[in-house]
Write a structure and sequence with these properties.
mainly beta; Jelly Rolls; TIM Barrel; eight-stranded parallel β-sheet; six-stranded antiparallel β-sheet; about 40% strand; Beta-mannosidase-like_N2
Length: about 775
């Protein structure tokens, strides 16, 4: 698996970091195209002051901060917060951001845009008091031209008002604020339109591939001969081929240049080897380079087959997917890229190869990471059309008719060059009537628009109870390129049998063994997408603030279903022991050999997950026998009389030992052990280390049964970003330096604050030996 060998992804990751860490001076406009991070030095207030859009408004007493920023995650959990169960009982309201900047007088005559990758929500954007536009949907990127309203050589003020006060507005946590990256874009008078490069690979083989490049060029200068150059480079930066095409463009004319290039012996994008290329576009007029930009892409082919499911580069691949919401747990909606990187590693390790963006588009950098680490992506647009859903009274259904087209266009045009995206879903469990003309037309208008903008990907819809909605009988399913259904896995399998020409896929599925067996035994079902990969904020009833849907909890700790799924979907040999928490098989599953009450715990019930042929269990060194892995994918079960000491499972395939797991009885916690995901960081908002904390006894064994309050301190050139323990019913703040452990564990998220040096993470707790770890800072 190439990512885990440290391939070119490392260079691409560092390129992302260096771009956002270099806050280019606005005065540095020598190049024909300048794309500058606009993340630093915003003023913020959680209020709605009158006149805050004006250039002369005084914001001196507002908080100074950098974006991305989610102000809701900084608030307190409260059962009375109007976000209620959907928003995780975190606060809502109105917030303003303002930023002052200057463009040099020499830039006058150039074109200037501002791009927000996400504004949550109901945004109003102003430049020097002029209203640029309103946008309800918080998940789409928004670009406004500033040119006519700028004062070159003088101070300008950008102001953004965000309003999510009407609640409940979502069935899950949305966050609040300028929670994604912001860019300032400066161009000459002849330029590539925003999202104006579309790279496709219509013909692909191991021997050669055709790369088609469509480039939308706008000429606002005088009529001129315009030349577009396309230079294709591989991940090593080597020029693979180049091509140019020219045409006369009149003033204010927009034209799409079309080029086809042939790459010999292409490096194909795949799950195990996610090779990336870059198309460098140059626009020339009369010997002067007017514009240039880079577009990453991958060379691959894929298709769905009604009988055998999904194929990539000619190989039949089962989709082993998870649904994800966009929050990052303790950091809320403003998620540093390193958190997604760590989560993706965990998902890869247990066999996951696909992600559904539930139920909205994610940040650009999220998709970049999917490209680079080798994940398939189902890109989803909306959770609702016109009909409402419970716990989202003020949701997108109020804006669908006015905004669906513009929002869909923004999603498709921004994301269509990502090789990871293999399908687009236009809705999740839509409650509109799909058994009438309006339902048909509403689907078709979205389907047709996507195909006009991007004819390379199929369109689906995550259907809700399709037989009750009659979509399997009334012709609606035949409209879909791929029939997607949520849950009721046997129903989908039967629909595939009854309609052998349908291409089908589970778009949202449970973790049950019954659902897995349907996936395993029906190759016509292209894949399943589990609900969910990781616990998320919201959709929980008080006192819980997040729900137990994930393979991993909110803090990244494992659960029984983590290992059960790995035993089903991973080829890496594994074995894992769990026991029922209480006597005689009562209670939930825990992965320890330390009962909460030794006096009443006598008969232990084990459940063992493995993908090996058989497992032998040893209790304090004595064999309890060997059992074969059941054909029905159920766990291997043992019952025994509990004695303190150890329980060990040895997994064998073809008689050879392939995996071992052992649990030992722990005493009370006496020490703190720290394990950072990264021991070296660069000074960048996106680069963080997740420091995992465990409480162990004097023998170093995890001690799970006492919740201990921990205090976190960062000294040196670093900062504490957030803390968590993954507990769904914890109401402790994430933005503090204290946290109680849950099952002997917690995490701290830390970040560098300088370009060099180091910092220490120190953790203390009453009655515990303190621990510290050093994080170095590099370039």
């Amino acid at each position: 698996m190439k990512y885990f060998k440290g391939f070119a992804f490392t260079a691409l990751w560092l390129m992302v970091l260096s771009f956002w860490s270099c806050e280019t001076k606005v005065e540095d406009l020598a190049d024909s195209r300048v794309v500058q991070s606009f993340n630093k030095d915003w003023r913020f207030v959680q209020d709605d002051p009158e006149g805050a859009e004006g250039a002369r408004f005084s914001d001196s007493d507002w908080r100074m901060l950098d974006v991305p920023h989610d102000w809701s995650i900084e608030g307190e959990f409260n059962r009375d917060n109007p976000t209620a169960r959907g928003g995780g009982y975190l606060p809502a309201g109105i917030g303003w951001y303002r930023k002052s900047f200057t463009l040099p007088k020499s830039a006058e005559g150039r074109k200037v845009w501002i791009n927000f990758d996400g504004l949550m929500a109901n945004s109003d954007v102003y430049i020097n008091g002029h209203h640029l536009g309103h946008r309800p949907y918080g998940y789409v990127d928004i670009t406004y031209e500033l040119t006519e309203h700028l004062q070159f050589g003088k101070e300008n003020v950008m102001a953004v008002r965000l309003d999510n006060s009407k609640q409940p507005a979502s069935r899950w946590y949305t966050g609040a604020g300028i929670y994604r990256n912001v860019k300032l874009i400066v161009k000459e008078d002849t330029y590539v339109d925003n999202n104006g490069v579309f790279v496709t690979t219509p013909q692909v083989s191991e021997e050669s591939a055709v790369v088609n490049v469509k480039t939308d060029v706008v000429n606002t200068g005088v009529a001129s001969e315009v030349m577009v150059k396309s230079l294709v480079k591989n991940a090593d930066g080597q020029l693979v081929l180049a091509d140019s095409v020219s045409r006369q463009l009149e003033q204010n004319e927009k034209y799409t240049f079309d080029q086809s290039l042939q790459v010999e012996s292409p490096r194909l994008w795949s799950l195990d080897s996610p090779e990336m290329y870059v198309n460098e576009t140059e626009v020339w007029v009369n010997g002067e380079k007017k514009d240039h930009l880079s577009t990453p892409f991958g060379i691959r082919s894929f298709h769905f087959d009604a009988a055998t499911g999904f194929h990539l580069n000619g190989e039949n691949i089962r989709l082993k997917g998870v649904c994800l919401h966009h929050d990052g747990g303790a950091v809320g909606a403003a998620v540093p890229l390193a958190i997604w990187e760590e989560r993706f590693k965990q998902l890869k390790e247990i066999g996951i190869n696909a992600i559904r963006t539930a139920h909205n588009p994610f940040a650009t950098e999220f998709l970049d990471l999917c490209d680079q680490m080798g994940f398939f992506v189902m890109n989803e647009t909306f959770d609702t059309w016109r009909a409402s859903k419970n716990n989202a009274d003020h949701g997108y259904q109020h804006h669908f008719d006015d905004w669906w087209e513009e929002d869909t266009r923004a999603i498709v045009l921004r994301d269509r060059n990502h090789p990871s995206i293999f399908i687009i879903s236009v809705g999740n469990e839509i409650r509109d009537n799909l058994n009438n003309e309006q339902g048909f037309e509403t689907y078709k208008m979205q389907h047709n628009l996507i195909h006009r903008l991007d004819g390379t990907r199929p369109v689906t819809l995550a259907l809700f109870r399709p037989n009750q909605a009659h979509v399997y009988q009334n012709g609606f399913a035949e409209l879909m390129d791929v029939v997607g259904q949520n849950y009721r896995e046997n129903e989908l399998a039967q629909a595939s049998i009854d309609n052998p020409d349908w291409k089908v896929m589970g778009t949202e599925n449970g973790h049950t063994r019954q659902a897995f067996l349907v996936w395993r035994d029906n190759p016509s079902i292209a894949g399943h997408f589990l609900w969910t990969g990781i616990d998320y904020l919201g959709e929980a009833d008080w006192p819980e603030v997040s729900h137990d849907y994930g393979l991993f909890d909110r803090a990244g700790f494992t659960k029984p279903r983590t290992w059960e799924r790995m035993s089903w979907w991973s080829e890496t040999p594994m074995v894992r022991i769990y026991r029922r928490e209480h006597h005689l098989g009562q209670g939930g599953l825990v992965d320890d050999w330390t009962p909460t009450d030794f006096d009443t715990y006598d008969e232990a019930h084990l459940e063992i997950y493995t993908n090996a042929d058989e497992v032998e269990v040893f209790h304090n060194g004595e064999s309890l026998g060997t059992k074969k892995r059941p054909e029905d994918a159920s766990p291997i079960r043992f019952r025994l009389t509990f004695q303190p000491g150890s329980i060990e499972a040895v997994a064998r395939t073809n008689g050879e030992e392939v995996a071992v797991h052992e649990l030992k009885t722990a005493k009370g916690p006496s020490q703190i052990v720290l394990s950072p995901t990264k021991t070296s960081l660069v000074n960048n908002w996106d680069d963080v280390s997740i420091v995992r904390v465990k409480l162990v006894d004097e023998e170093g064994i995890l001690s799970p049964n006492l919740a201990k309050k921990l205090t976190f301190e960062v000294t040196g050139n670093g900062e504490l970003v957030a803390v968590d323990n993954g507990a769904r019913d914890s109401h402790e703040s994430f933005v503090t330096n204290e946290r109680r452990t849950a099952r002997g564990q917690a995490i701290a998220i830390v970040r560098a604050t300088a370009d060099e040096g180091s910092f220490q993470v120190n953790v203390t707790g009453e009655g515990l030996t303190p621990a510290s770890v050093e994080i170095t800072i590099g370039q």
